[in-house]
Design goal:
33% of the residues lie in helices and 23% in strands. It is an alpha+beta fold. The protein has a single domain, classed as Gcn5-related N-acetyltransferase (GNAT) (Aminopeptidase, 3-Layer(aba) Sandwich), CATH 3.40.630.30. It has a five-stranded mixed sheet with strand order 1-2-3-4-5. Strand 2 and strand 3 form a beta hairpin. It is globular and about 55 Å long. The termini are far apart. The mean pLDDT is 94.
Amino acid sequence: MANLDIKIREAEITDLEIILTFIAQKSEFDRAKILLAATAERLQQALFSQPPLVRVLLAEIAGNPVGFAMFYATYSSLLTQPCLWLDDLFVQSPVRGRGVGTALLKHLAQIAESTNCGRMEWTVNAKNAAGIAFYEKQGARILENIRVCRIDGSAISELASK
């Protein structure tokens, strides 16, 4: 397998449509298309407000976007340090297994290191064996004793009005 010339760069406002395409493709991969509600307007607000709520890295091969990572800063009271939360990582299937995901994670690690982050975290579907193996190969520990808690939709309003 030939080495690919993978370039990682920060997304720009002109990348909104490709990011939306990647989000839609990831929702299909995750079998969560029914939950897809992303719009260009909301994404633009999140990415390009001051300060931005989230950031996106794009992976390109020969100038063509082939994957993305969406991330944002969090904070750990236990570490008393900032942390980096990886919300989405997606690589198009024709180039999976060829170093694109690794390049994205490496760039994220460089950002985390340069901003004194105590850790990087994300979730992975328990049924995504290939994803779990990939993350473990990169040095991630899969925390079996942690569960994601979620309140969404009308449950937010119900809780807020109690």
